[in-house]
Amino acid sequence: MVLVLYETSLGFCLFKLTDEGRLNSDNLWKDFETPEGANSLLRLKALHRFQSTVTAVEEMTAMTDGKLGTGLKKFLTDEVVGKGKGKESLVVVDPKLAAAISKKLSIKVISENSSMDLYRGIRSQLASLLDGLDPKDLSTMNLGLSHSLSRFKVKFSPDKVDTMIVQAIGLLDELDKEINIYSMRVKEWYGWHFPEMGKIIVDNLAYAKCVRAMGFRTNASSTSFAYILPEELEATLKVAAEISMGTEIADTDINHIHQLCDQVISITEYRAQLYEYLKNRMAAVAPNLTALVGELVGARLIAHAGSLLSLAKAPASTIQILGAEKALFRALKSKHDTPKYGLIFHASLVGQAPQKLKGKMARMVATKAALSIRLDALFRPDEKSAPEAPMIGVEARAKLESRLRALEYRSDLNGRGERTDPSLRKKQSKYEMQGDARTYNTAADSVHLIPTGRNSVEAAISIVAEVKAEKKSGPEQLKKDKATAKAAPSSDDDSSEEETKEERKARKAAKKAAKAAKKAAKHAKGKAVAANGDHDVEMSSPAPPSAAPEKEKEKKKRARESEAAAADDNAMDVDADSSKKKKKDKKSRKSEA
Description:
single chain
């Protein structure tokens, strides 16, 4: 006996096929041209009605996924397994559902392409096969079930969850920019009235809350800042407000400043709520990626790729430089070194590595992140919320941390080398997840708020003095800059003049030494000439003192003349020798001819 399973918006229908041979017939469609032909071929055996729309959506969703729902399982167990004798065969159109039924209920299932004509005929004559069913009611139920099923799929689609993460991280970045812009505007606006407050309170949220609570600076002494600031800082603020040199502002000005402070406070609070929402979403959608690189970096990677599935399709090399596309193409165009990291640079594992190991650490983190992303994207969504879901990411993080410590030890900057004794090596303890995980300490951002070891009055006075000096130094600083700009070229000229003077002194000394050497050589030559050829000079009669310089001049002239004559004689000798050689060459050539 052959039974046919057919699903409708009313429930599951089980039909009995009267003629088993017509199942594989090519003319099966002719039997469904009329309601009488359809009723002669198929007879309704059992009907399982859906109790509510929720159960109908659950059963139809399970069937479309190829799973055996609880209602269908009970229906087949009662009608086929319980009443039958094991000889029935069931015709099912979906191959996945047929495999699930055959595996769990041990029923002989027929799932062939020839059964498609049978299902088309049942769909066309369903109103006649189900006695007492109005076609209008059936179409209304089909429309309602299709709308419910579509809403269910859109609501629980993993792609839509990715879209929520993309929108949340984009909004978080925009809120950070808006908070910085609004806080800067509050400090500049209120700084005209109380300029010293900007140096006392650095935190943006605390500044906005203090301005909102205080209003005019004259109200500082009667305002309590205990829920905003510590005691020492509160005392400093009150003293500075009494001796402040700010200008007076009107009530309308302070009202607008208060509204801007309300905006800063509300946006900051919403930013904290949005971060918690993003943290929970990332833990539910990508637990392994979150455990490895953190919520913000993981969310930025998903947002840059578009979805978690798109990010899972990317290789580790792409994940490593994701976010640095401009630098990559610029390097390829200019034939320079390509970037080593992109968005993954902000991960804590890469940030805590030394500069020379950041590239290697980014490559290893990208490799482990690729495995974690694929596991999160393709893993069963029902088991993502389990406590053991992020174990792969936790183990990968522990391995990378131990690997980083090993690399830091090997690349010892002092050049001490590696340890060879295994007993000296430190044993790595097993990494375990703890409930009290460390988080970012936002209170550390306002560390400059608390004065250390100073009296509040002295601190306020010093801050007021600094503000006065800054305001006074405005026009004076311009004059000083102009004076220094004018004095700069003159100092350069002086230094150049000093350098030229030293050079001149050295040149003069060198010239004097050269002249002295020449005079000594000439004097020696003059004495030799005078001793050999100067016989006319009367040695007996001493020359008068006035004739001494004239004699020296005559000696110099004679020495110059003798040197010139010797040079001429040498030249004449060279010319004679050359002419003699030329004559000898000519005679030799003639004799040879």
